[in-house]
Design goal:
Number of domains: 3
Oligomer: single chain
CATH class of the largest domain: Mainly Beta
Radius of gyration: 39 Å
């Protein structure tokens, strides 16, 4: 769609060939506003133009157009001798006059002329100009009917009949590249790496980036403001204090916050830098100049805990107008602007919004594409009374789990009491700390020491808050002394154990105590979370959390199904070895002694034979 120095940006003088282009002195200018920076603009005079004079000798509004045989477009339009028929224009060979045919579709005419320039080798009537800002101006142009082209490859129409024509480049499309991504790491230079999906542990912090290209116009309508609408699954907690807004690489630091559906401070504007979701006492410490809401560079509205909206005023001198309920609580707001308000930013320009989130312990586990771990966003913009919008873009954070079934290698009996410790590395030096849940044998990643501990917001939950009642003796050593964290997991009567809330990757389960009468495994069990996930079912009494070694509900136990990477580990019973001094030992020593003597005799005999031979 973008052909270099082709597909155009415009047609002149309302495409009717009946509106004035330049003044009677036969020279004028064309100014292109909302120009695209780094794109090159060129102008081509298709026809000559002259003003018609009225009876008093003054210029009339109508313009007369003509073309001479030496015009570079003449042959393409009317043939070498001027007799070729043209679908869009009439040509009078006697006078050189041209006019647009009746009933011609302006869009088709625009395409015809732009294709003509794109497919031919024509010389611009002024030196092409590469836009360094939003305005490009061509001066001292002969009075005529001009076509404007751009390397952007889009179309603009001149719609003025004054000598100095101002043209709005109305073909910049707002937010054509809207993108929502999540950080998955950093490159060799320390710069963030962004992808459309990631994997994380419960309690991990994840960073989102929303980016798009903003323009000052939507068509020929000036854009008043942009909004970013964000919606997240209930297992993703947004840290509102972390929101940053950048336009053209410059951070807009003055943000205001309105809770319109979440606690606390519902219906109250807050200086965003002091927002902490628990109180607003810091508000009074902010200087009055900073509390001028009309001076804010962006506004955040919190719509409950799962949605929020960031609004960026795009014109100068905006005013904030609250919409309040009967109690005076602000439920929404509107922005107004002076009629002659100018755009505040260059066009086009990149907009970036970033913020941090934490994966909550209620995250759905497994390879489900959507689950409750999604985050999606879209952008809208308002110009006059119209609103444009982008399609939503979604990011998913995958959270996995691993499971294990312990049984007797000979009988297949499920074994309880197998104790393992879970590690991140094969050498078993980096523990993965977990805590028990409300179901026996099911563990979840411990939130202690994770970013979730420092996240603001009274509604934010971590694993210890949800399952702290089940810790009991789990955080005590063998002597009953308190310990901070544990990585011990134990199989239950059904032979099963599972760990939920893990990031994709390989984990190692080291058996530290086998069931009574069985040998502990010599090497760790290796399981890669996220690979080959399948159903892992258990039957649990929801009242007590006890599990049963059954395969169907019995009126007490209900079936729970987890989407996990899991494996079966077989245990063998121990074998009794011969005791010291027993009959077995005697015969082993005797046989060994005889073999040793025989081997010695062989060596001596062989040596002597060698000597005599020599």
């Amino acid at each position: 769609m973008k052909r270099f120095l082709s597909i155009l940006m415009v047609l002149t003088l309302v495409l009717s060939l009946s509106v004035a282009a330049f003044a009677a002195e036969n020279t004028g200018s064309i100014t292109i506003t909302n120009a695209t920076i780094d794109e090159t603009y060129a102008v081509y005079k298709v026809f000559d133009a002259s003003l018609k004079l009225d009876a008093n000798g003054e210029a009339a509004e109508a313009v007369a157009y003509s073309i001479k045989p030496d015009n570079q477009f003449f042959e393409a339009l009317f043939g070498a001798d001027g007799t070729a028929a043209n679908t869009f224009f009439t040509y009078n060979a006697n006078t050189g006059a041209v006019a647009k045919r009746e009933g011609v579709n302006d869009s088709e005419l625009i395409k015809y002329l732009t294709d003509l320039v794109a497919n031919g080798t024509y010389t611009p009537d002024a030196t092409p100009v590469k836009a360094t800002d939003e305005e490009v101006k061509f001066e001292d142009l002969d009075y005529g009917y001009y076509l404007i082209t751009s390397t952007l490859g889009t179309t603009v129409t001149i719609n003025s009949n004054t000598p100095d024509v101002e043209v709005i480049d109305k073909n910049q499309e707002p937010a054509p590249d809207f993108d929502k991504q999540v950080q998955v790491g950093v490159d060799e230079n320390g710069d963030p790496i962004w992808e459309d999906a990631n994997s994380a542990n419960i309690g991990d912090k994840i960073t989102y980036q929303i980016s798009f290209t903003a323009t000052n116009y939507d068509g020929d309508k000036k854009i008043k403001h942009y909004q970013v609408h964000d919606e997240k699954g209930d297992a993703i907690w947004a840290e509102f204090n972390s929101i940053q807004v950048f336009v053209g690489g410059v951070e807009l630091s003055r943000g205001y916050y309105l809770s319109a559906g979440g606690d606390p401070d519902n219906g109250t504007w807050l200086w965003l830098g002091d927002y902490d979701d628990t109180c607003s006492d810091g508000w009074n410490d902010i200087p009055e100049a900073q509390r001028n809401r009309n001076d804010a560079q962006w506004y955040l509205v919190h719509l409950g805990y799962d949605q929020f909206r960031v609004t960026i005023p795009w014109l100068e001198n905006h005013e904030l107008n609250d919409v309040a309920d009967a109690s005076g609580n602000v439920t929404s707001y509107a922005l107004s602007y002076p009629d002659d308000a100018a755009s505040k930013f260059s066009s086009p320009v990149e907009v970036i919004v970033t913020y941090d989130s934490v994966v909550e312990p209620g995250a759905s586990i497994g390879s489900t594409t959507h689950g409750n771990r999604f985050n999606k966003a879209h952008a809208t913009w308002t110009s006059e009374n119209e609103t444009g919008s982008t399609p939503p873009d979604e990011v998913v954070t995958h959270v996995y789990g691993i499971g294990l079934l312990k049984d007797d290698s000979a009988t297949g009996q499920n074994l309880a009491g197998a104790k393992f410790r879970i590690y991140k590395d094969k050498e078993c030096t980096i523990p993965v700390y977990v805590i028990p849940t409300n179901i026996k044998g099911i563990y979840i990643v411990d939130s202690k020491g994770t970013p979730s501990e420092t996240v603001t917001g009274s509604a934010m939950k971590d694993a210890r808050e949800l399952y702290g009642a089940y810790l009991g003796d789990y955080l005590k050593d063998d002597e009953g002394n308190p310990i901070e964290q544990n990585n011990l997991v134990v199989s239950q009567v059904n032979g099963k154990l599972a760990v939920l809330g893990l990031k994709a990757g390989t984990y190692y389960l080291l058996e530290v105590e086998a069931p009574s009468g069985y040998n502990a495994l010599a090497v760790p069990v290796e399981i890669t979370a996220g690979e080959g996930t399948r159903s892992f079912n258990i039957f649990v009494d929801e009242q007590t959390g006890n599990v049963a070694d059954i395969q169907q509900t019995d009126g007490i136990h209900v079936e729970k199904i987890y989407d996990l990477t899991h494996t079966v580990v077989h245990n063998s019973k121990g074998v009794e070895l011969p005791s010291t001094g027993g009959e077995g030992t005697f015969w082993m020593i005797t046989i060994g002694t005889l073999l040793t003597i025989g081997f010695a005799v062989f060596l001596i005999t062989h040596k002597k034979m060698s000597v005599y031979t020599d």
